[in-house]
Amino acid sequence: MSISELSSLLKEAETGGLAAIAAARDQAGLGRARAAVLGRKAPLARVRSALSDLDEEQRRELGRRANEVRTRLEGALEQRERAFRAAEESNRWQRERLDVTLPGDEPRLGGLHPLTKTIWEIVDIFSGLGYRVADGPEVELTSYNFDALNFDAQHPSRSEQETYYIGETGEVLLRTHTSPVQMRVMESSEPPVYVVCPGRTYRRDVLDPTHLNSFAQIEGLAVDEGITMADLKGTLQAFARELFGRDLDIRLRPHFFPFTEPSAEMDVLCFVCRGSGCRVCKQEGWIEILGCGMVNVPLLEWAGYDIERYTGFAFGLGAERVAALAHGVPDIRYFYENDLRFLRAFEGVA
Ligand code: 2NL
Questions:
Q1: For atom 3 of ligand 1, which residue has the closest CA?
Q2: Residue 293 Cα: closest atom of ligand 1
Q3: Whether 38 contacts 71, CB under 8 Å
Q4: How many CB atoms lie within 10 A of CB 180?
Q5: With 233 labelled, which of 75, 79, 88, 324 sits at a CA distance of 20 to 30 A?
Q6: Does pTM surpass 0.70?
Q7: Running DSSP on this structure, what letter comes out for residue 207?
Q8: Minimal-distance CA residue to ligand 1 atom 5
Q9: What's the gap in Å between 220 CA and the centre of ligand 1?
């Protein structure tokens, strides 16, 4: 190539190169322009490789100009590169912009199980009356669960059809009530005794809307000097009013339990109809809440208490039954299904 051909090729390398760089739309396009402008087949490269054909002076002159063109092209590339990077960066800021003042997604807090709330509410009422809370083993000795409580050898609830025995000897069972806890309290301490014993109990029942084979029982026991049936009635009246309503009366109906004598079942006036009869009280006007009575003398003797000096009363209730009554739950099995639609109905309910 002649010097003038090379000279115009160099011009074209510059103007065409700058145009190609200016035409690039994005970083990828700029990469392609870089290859076309500075690559091995670019006009500028062709000028460089042709330099060796020139004489010394022309080679130096054109070489210098080729270097200047290269510097300008590199400068232009560099400038566009920076512009693309800045645009990309500000795009990202825009894209990833986050409003930190927006409220977050509120985590859903769990709550206490409705049955737990009922148990705590009942235990709280007796705490307020000066009772302590006691617990004991769920796997119990038959002697504490039945014998000490004055259940005779023939009592039907002792049978394998009604009670879960552990092993073959008949000496160990799943407690059928929390009474053995109270026997253990009496065994290990002298009067005055004022305790409530909430806990899990087991009976071999067929499940239906009002029966489970495991239920939460709460029993209470007071043994002191001069305790009478009047103390029983006054205490349970206070308890029922606290739980169901300030002005609701109770009544005691004679009943039988081996561990109390005399024994009674306690009803509270229906908190829905106040005695006139409705669906909740099954037209009775009254709702059965618990069993109770004066601690039977053989139990006090078993505990080694002075029976001339001490008397006591006791009571027991099923927490599921009370919770179902209080909340209008038609089937106590709901308490154990762990269906969140059911459980969430009690959110925030005291
Ligand atoms: C019920 C009836 C009752 C008792 C439990 C008791 C405990 C001792 C002494 C005397 Cl250590 N009595 N407990 C008394 C009467 C009734 O429970 O219907 N429970 C679900």
A1: 316
A2: 15
A3: no
A4: 28
A5: 324
A6: yes
A7: P
A8: 316
A9: 8
